[in-house]
Amino acid sequence: MTVPESTYRVQLRPEFSFSDAAGVAGYLRELGIGALYASPVLDAAPGSTHGYDVVDPTRARPELGGESARQELSTLLKELGLGFVVDIVPNHMSVEVPKANQWWWDVLKHGRDSAHASYFDIDWERGPLLLPVLGEDDAVSELTVDGDELAYYDHRFPIAPGTEGGTPQEVHERQHYRLIGWRRGNAELGYRRFFDITNLAAVRVEDPTVFAATHGEVLRWVADGDVTGLRVDHPDGLADPGGYFRRLRENAPNAWIVAEKILHPGEPLPQSWPVDGTTGYDALREIAGVFIDPAGEPGFTELATELGVKTGYHRVEAEARRLVTDRILVAEVRRIAALLRGIDQDAAREAVAETMIAFPVYRSYLPEGAAHWEAAIAGARQARPDLGAALDTLDAQVRAEPESELATRLQQTSGMVVAKGTEDTTFYRYTRFAALNEVGGNPDRFGLDVEEFHRLAAEREAGHPAAMTTLTTHDTKRSEDTRARMAVLAELPGEFADAVRRWTVRRAIAEPALNLLAWQTLMSTWPIEPARLRDYLDKAAKESKLRTSWTDHDETFEADVAAWPEDVMGDAELAADIEAFVARIEQPGYANSLGQKLVQLTAPGVPDVYQGTELWDFSLVDPDNRRPVDYAVRRELLTRIADGEQPAIDSSGAAKLLVVHKALRLRREHPGLFRGYRPLRAEGPAAEHVLAFTRSADLAIAVTRLPVGLDTAGGWRDTVLPLPDGVWTDVLTGREASSDAATLFGRYPVALLVRGDA
C-alpha cells in the first residue's frame, strides 16, 4: 500500500489547471510534501470552481487540460517521487446543465426506458420526473421549442422521440419530465439529491453496473500507478457505505483510501470499512481543542446570554434540524414515511422526522452500530411521547429488515438532516464561541485537556495510523490560523466581553447571534478586506435562517449586514479600539498556530496541508478559502529558510513555513522516527502550558499552549520538560535542546527534537 508521509491539497479549477499544479510540484517536493492531493479531477459542470459537480466520470476534465495534461502531471509527480491523491465523488452528479450530463439527458429523453434510468435514484412510481427550474409555477407559458429541444430561457431539455408538434406547453406535457417552479422542489422532488441541492442528483453506486461506469476511469489511473490514493467524498449519502468501500478496495487493493466520514466525539469508524481512516475532522477537533482554555466558558456563556444569543446548544440544534425536516428535506421525509407499513402517513412522517432529528451521530450502519439507532429512537420517544405507536412500528420494521429500502433511505437521509441542521444552520445560530463551530466539532464542549488528547492520539496510532489529519480543508468554517487566533479569546473572556459591549453600542448587527459572530470573526481575521467580510456575513446570515435565508430574503436586514464592515472600519475611533485589541492577541495567536501545526504534522496520522496554509492564512468558509495562492512569495521564503534563515514570528508567516518545512522534510526523509506514541509531561509551575510527546525513542515534540495565561502567571519560571537520556537537538533551530522550558522555547514556542545523530 502506498501511504504518503504527508499530502498537500490543491483546489483545481479552470484558473488553476493540471498544468498549474505541475508548476508547483517542484516547490511541494522542496517543502517536504509526500503527495499532491487534488480536488475532483473528472469532468464537471461548465466553469465549476470546485469540481464536486461531476457531469462525466469517464474522462479527465477538459477545463483542467484534459487527459493529456493529467498524464503529464502524473508523470512529473512520479519523477519527483510524489504520490497523487485524488478526490472522488460517488454520491451524486451535476444535472444543472442537462446537456452537459449525457446520462441525465438520456434519462430525460427516454424516461424509465433509458439505458441510464437505473443510474440515478429516481422514484418512477410518482409519475414524470419533476425538475424545479422555473421561476414561477405558471412559467410554462415561457417555454419554447427549438428543433428537438425544449427551452426555458437558456435552459435546454430534450424532447422524447414521437412527442414533437403542438404548442410548447403541449410538448412539455408529453415528456418524461415536468418543469416546475423552483420552490416546489423541497416538497415534491422525485429523485434523491445531495442535501437540498436540486441540481446534484444522487447516483446508485450500490449497483455494480453503476459503480463500474462511474469509477472505471479513476480505477484505470490507479491500476496504471498514476493515482496512489483516493479521498472519498460524503460516503454517508450512499445506500451501503461498507459495501461500497469493500468493492472499492477490491478494485484498488494498493491505494491509500480515506473516507470523508464525520465522527462524533467517541464514535468509532465502522470496523467493516476497509479504509485507512477518515479525512481528519476528528483530529482537527482534538488538536484545536487542546489549545482552547476551558476556563473561558462561563464568560462567553454570560456574554452570549446578555446579548440575546441562545446558549442551550442541544435545543438550538434540535430546532435547526426540525427546520430541515419540515421545510428543506420534505420530499425525502415523505418518501421514507411512505415505506412505513400500517401507520397513518402524517404520524409516519412525524416519526421519521423526529428520529432523524434525534440522531446522536450522522447516521447508523445497521446492523453495525445498532446503539446509535437505539439512541435515535429513544431520543424521539422522549421528545414526542405522543408518537409512541408510530415509533414502535418504525423501530420494529427497521430492526427486522435492516437492509430494506426503509432502513437504507432513513440512514442515508439522517446524515443530510444532521449535516444541514447542525453544520449549516446551528453553527451560525449558536455563536457563543465560534472557534468550536467546526465540521466534526462539538460546540458545547469547551476545549480538550492534555491527558484526553494523549489518549486519543495513542488510539489513532494503534487503530488508524494511516488516517489523514487536517487543520484546514475546503469545507472548514474557518482556516486554522483564524481558529488559532480566535482561541486566544478564550483566555481573555472578560476583556473580550467588555470590548464587544462597547463595540455593539457603537455599531451592532440587529440579530444577536450574527452580531456576536461578526465581532469574533473581525478579531480573528483583522485586517480583513471589507468585501471579504461582507460576503462572509451575508452567507452566515442566510445559513442561520433567522432573519433572512437563501430563499426568503429580508432585503433591509441584508443591506444593514452588508454595510456593517465598512461602517466599522470607517469609524476611526472604533477601528483604533479594535486594532489595539488585535495587537493584544496577535502574538499569542501566532503561538497557537505554530503549536497546533507542529502537533498535526508530527502526531499519528498522515498530515494534510491545505493550499497556502504553510504561511499564515486567515480565511473563512468557502468560497473565501478557495482564493488564489501566491506561490512566488512562498518559494522565495522557502529558499531563504532552506539556506538557514530562522525567521522572526511576524506577519510574514515565514516562521510557520519554517515549522512546516522542517517537520515535513524530517517526516519524509526519516519516516521511521514517526512510529509509536508516548506522552511527555512537563513538571513545574507552568507544566499545564506544555503539550509534549515522543513518537519513536529518538523523536520528541513539545509545544506551548494557553500562551496568555502563561505570560500572566510570570512565564516558565522553573518549569522543566524531562527528556529521555541523550543529547537532543531542535531541528527548527539546530541548537542543542535543554530540559529547561524557558531555554527550550527561547526562540520559538515549539520544539522538534531528535536524539543523537538520528
From TrEMBL:
Residues 11-384 form the Glycosyl hydrolase family 13 catalytic domain. One of its GO terms (biological process) is trehalose biosynthetic process. One of its GO terms (molecular function) is (1,4)-alpha-D-glucan 1-alpha-D-glucosylmutase activity. Signal peptide: none annotated. It comes from the Bacteria. InterPro entries: GH, GH13_cat_dom, Maltooligo_trehalose_synth_4, Trehalose_TreY. SMART domains: Aamy (SM00642). PANTHER family: ALPHA-AMYLASE FAMILY MEMBER, MALTOOLIGOSYL TREHALOSE SYNTHASE-RELATED. This is (1->4)-alpha-D-glucan 1-alpha-D-glucosylmutase. The lineage of its organism: Bacteria, Bacillati, Actinomycetota, Actinomycetes, Pseudonocardiales.
